[in-house]
Amino acid sequence: MNITMIGAGYVGLVSGACFADFGHIVTCVDTDEGKIARLVRGEMPIFEPGLDELVAANVREKRLAFTTALEASVPGADAVFIAVGTPSRRGDGFADLSFVYAGAQKIAACLEGFTVVINKSTVPVGAGDEVERIIRELRPDADFAVVSNPEFLREGAAIEDFKRPDRVVIGTDDPRARDVMSEIYRPLNLNQPPLLFTSRRTSELTKYAANAFLATKITFINEVADLCEKVGADVQDVARGIGLDKRIGGKFLHVGPGYGGSCFPKDTLALIKIGQDHSSPLRIVETVVAVNDARKRAMARKVIAACGGAVRGKKIGLLGLAFKPNTDDMRDAPSLAIVASLAGDGADVHAYDPESMAQARSLMPEVTFAENAYDCAAGADALVIVTEWDVFRALDLERIKGSMRAPVVVDLRNVYRPADMRKRGFAYVSVGRE
Ligand code: UGA
Fold it and tell me: Fold for domain 295-429?
């Protein structure tokens, strides 16, 4: 199949490279000339494990190309994916669809022969109808079908998620589009993930419902963790105890400083807005968003309490800034709220993150950035594990303790065991455990 991917951002780049690896011929188009020039040189605009090798191999095999010339890439394509950004619109939390609709207009001008136009960007219910309307209005003669095919990739595990999905959701009622989509995903047959064909609107809503449910699951266990601290229970065991029930499932029950990233915060807000607009409020999701926001600030108070109630003039070392490990993404990272609260209370905040410091520098001007975890800990009155990068799982704890001003560790991801840490002489605070 000939595939054109509009948008060489996170989703477009990963999906494009994986489709090429399946054997399809893929052209990734982006309006950002600098980004395309870097991709042509083999430089990745994002950090995603394995992506550079995957891109290089498929470029070498001439299955993957990058260009700014949309008008040359759409004619002759069997499928044109729209994978542009849908940021939260300032003020109302609604997804900003201007890039999606601009993409639809440009595609319309170049359509030739039957073409499937697929929305991969996360779009509110009904956006597919609008894309179809835009194209139909500009090109009444065109032969096309608009399909919804949301992505369920996790940053840091995106290639694995793409190649071994739990399911692929495809929203279309058009039999020809269904055939094209089946052919595009045929290489997955070996792993036999279900291709779930639904109506377009159902597919659009499924994406939001999935992210909102996962955000709810995380927020639920985080609140249970707070209760565990009050009643003397252990949230790790509670999570295991409920997660082994197959109806609940053990995933996304890991406690922490609150969810962040480019998806859960944006998509929960967008779903709330859709519900309000249709007089069908999602009150559980509304509460999840409020609880999660408050949690990020509460984590700073946890650090302050561990420091004896005040941090003014104290050095606090943060390990990890990205919203989760294996990404350099700082969007809605809990570290942003934690740093703002600690610095606001007069702390001297130092931080180290293996990948995100370049991005963090401009977002956190008050922070001093360290070369590594040990520099970050040296002379600190407290060390806070904010993101559970693997390099923080096996730190030389003797060295850390010897270099700190006070051996206080606040572990917001429960990486270490309370009993071990106490035996080593740390004043150790974690989440939802004794
Ligand atoms: C999420 C979904 O997991 C993907 O399926 C979806 O495709 C994607 O959003 C999207 O809509 O594009 P992502 O944001 O990359 O993926 O990251 P997750 O691994 O889901 O983590 C999100 C946040 O939840 C992180 O801040 C993470 O630390 C937190 N989290 C996750 C927890 O606090 N506990 C958990 O048990 C799991």
Answer: Rossmann fold (3.40.50)
- CATH code for the structural domain at 208-287: 1.10.1040.10
pLDDT tens-digit profile of 172-212? 999 999 999 999 999 987 767 789 999 999 999 999 999 99
Q: Residue ranges of the chain with pLDDT lower than 70?
A: 91, 93, 191
> What is the sign, positive or negative, of the torsion defined by CA atoms of 332, 85, 390, 218?
positive
- Per CATH, the number for 2-197 is 3.40.50.720
- The pLDDT, as a whole number, for residue 191 is 65
- Closest ligand 1 atom number to CA of residue 387: 28
* CB-count burial class (<10 Å; 0-12, 13-18, 19+) for 345: middle
Closest ligand 1 atom to the C-alpha of 333? 26
Domain boundaries, the chain: 2-197, 208-287, 295-429
CA pair distance 159, 19, nearest whole angstrom: 11
Check if 263 is active-site: yes
DSSP-based three-state secondary structure for 196: strand
DSSP string, 56-112: HHHHHTTSEEEES-HHHHSTT-SEEEE----PBPTTT--B--HHHHHHHHHHHHH--
Give the residue, by CA position, lying nearest to ligand 1 atom 25: 259
Q: What per-residue confidence (pLDDT) applies to 194?
A: 86
* pLDDT confidence of residue 92: 72
Ligand 1 pocket, Cβ-based, cut-off 6 angstroms: 122, 151-155, 211, 214, 218, 252-254, 256, 259-261, 263-264, 267, 323-324
